[in-house]
Amino acid sequence: MEETSGEDGGDVITRVAGCKFGGWPTWHLTEPWEFRCRECDTPMRLLFTVASDHTTRITVGRWGDLRVFSCPRDIRHGYELDVH
Ligand SMILES: [Zn+2]
Fold first, then answer.
1. How far is the CA of 69 from the centre of ligand 1 (A)?
2. What is the pLDDT of residue 20?
3. Cα(84) to centroid(ligand 1), Å
4. Over 90: is that where the pLDDT of 37 sits?
């Protein structure tokens, strides 16, 4: 979270109008770390990614990605947001 190395960090995202639904977090390969549900401690699932994109005029943080995670067991357990 505190790491601010570089602009795009070499992330490769399949971008469709700046959004990617499902799939794996791009940092999954480099940072073995995951959100866990605050309610039931289940590893949370990546719901979708919103990438900074000129086309959609979306800017996330310092030209990063916003990732939304949800609990796979019960969506009412809430969401976790990560700006990368
Ligand atoms: Zn849960």
1. 11
2. 65
3. 23
4. yes
Distance CA 84, CA 23 (A): 16
Tokens of 6: 């570089």
| C-beta neighbour count of 20 within 10 angstroms | 19
d(CA 70, ligand 1 centre) in Å:
8
How far away, in angstroms, is 55 Cα from ligand 1 center? 35
Tokens of 21: 């639904």
Flag whether the pTM goes above 0.70. Answer: no
Q: Taking residues 56-84, report their average pLDDT.
A: 84
Check residues 78 and 24 and name the one with the higher pLDDT.
78
User: DSSP per residue over the chain, as a string?
Assistant: -----SSSTT-----BTTEEESS--GGGTT-----B-TTT-PBPEEEEEEE-BTTTTB--TTT-EEEEEE-SS-GGG-EEEEE-
